[in-house]
Structures are given as structure tokens and as C-alpha cells.
Design goal:
alpha/beta; 9 helices; single chain; Rossmann fold; 17% strand
């Protein structure tokens, strides 16, 4: 295992859409996703955003759409890695560390992580930036992803690993963003 490097990282935002997000057990993940997206944009870390059947589940949350410049890629597969366009966007980025966030932990996030592990990339999941309707589904999904070789981490860990040091303007900017994350 290795720490995250912003030059090697890509942020994957999986299916955080209006209708499905509204039924998540806890909404604290949204503010963490906003900070992760803003930090990725500030540090020029590529972002890939996906939407599962947006006609039925709605678009990506408006608060997240305003943070990222990347348009969402529509999919009908549960795993992002089983959609050729999305897999190409991830692998063709040249990034070997994929930070996977989104919903639902035990469906689309889990299947994506398992499939990405088959592509021999390093997969990192901030436990507080994924969600499921039922907390126990999230817990078991995280356990399964860890058993498959993914690194379970936290939003703050991801951010500080991307930063790497505290004597920069980026550190001051990101530190201010962290104040928006609920404890």
C-alpha cells in the first residue's frame, strides 16, 4: 500500500443523483463529496462522474454539478468498469490510483471497485464519502471491498495525502474547505 499522490489520482463520483440520494440514511456524505470535488478541481486531479439511468433517478445533485466542470457519463451497467466509455475514461487518464465515491455502496460502488481491482489499479474508498440506504449494507460493502484489496480510507486522509505538505496556498484553501465537513 502506498499513500495517494495527486499526480497518480483520479476521483470517481458514482451515481450521486437527486432521486436516489434523497433516500440515503445519512446525508453527511454530500458535504464531503463537495469538498473532494472542489479539492480535485483545485489540484487538477481528473474527475469522472457517472449517472445511473438519469431519466428515472434524476441528474447528479445540483450542489455537486456546480463544483465540477466534468459532465456526467450516463450508464446502464451497475459497475462503471463494465461500461466501455467510462472504463476508457478511467484507464486512458493514465492515473493508477482511483478514489471511488458515491452511492449505493453495496451496488454500483461495490461492483465498480471489484471490477477496477481486476484492472490492476489501486482503489481507495473514503468510507465517509460513500453511502447506502441501509447502514449495514454500507458496512458489509466496505468489508468486501477491503477483502478484495481496496484501501478503505477517509475524506480527510485523501485530502491530506493529495496535499502532501502544509506550507502551500492549496493547504490553506483545503483547510478552509474542511470546516464545511460535519464531524
Amino acid at each position: 500500500m502506498t499513500t495517494l499522490d495527486r499526480e497518480l489520482s483520479l476521483l470517481l463520483l458514482v451515481d450521486v443523483q437527486e432521486r436516489i440520494n434523497s433516500v440515503m440514511a445519512d446525508q453527511a456524505h454530500v458535504s464531503r463529496l463537495e469538498v473532494l470535488l472542489a479539492a480535485a478541481e483545485a489540484m487538477s486531479i481528473p474527475v469522472v462522474t457517472t449517472e445511473q439511468y438519469p431519466k428515472g433517478l434524476g441528474p447528479t445533485l445540483a450542489t455537486l454539478r456546480t463544483v465540477t466542470r466534468t459532465p456526467a457519463l450516463e450508464k446502464d451497467t451497475f459497475s462503471c468498469a463494465r461500461d466501455a466509455r467510462i472504463l476508457a475514461a478511467i484507464l486512458d487518464s493514465g492515473r493508477s490510483q482511483i478514489v471511488v465515491t458515491g452511492i449505493e455502496s453495496h451496488v454500483c460502488v461495490l461492483q465498480t471497485v471489484l471490477d477496477l481491482r481486476d484492472h490492476e489499479v489501486s482503489v481507495h474508498i473514503p468510507h465517509d464519502a460513500v453511502n447506502s440506504r441501509r447502514p449495514e449494507d454500507k458496512l458489509w460493502a466496505l468489508n468486501r471491498m477491503a477483502a478484495a484489496g481496496a484501501t478503505i480510507t477517509s475524506t480527510e486522509s485523501v485530502l491530506f495525502e493529495w496535499l502532501g505538505r502544509c506550507d502551500t496556498a492549496e493547504f490553506k484553501t483545503i483547510s478552509k474547505m474542511l470546516k464545511n465537513i460535519p464531524v
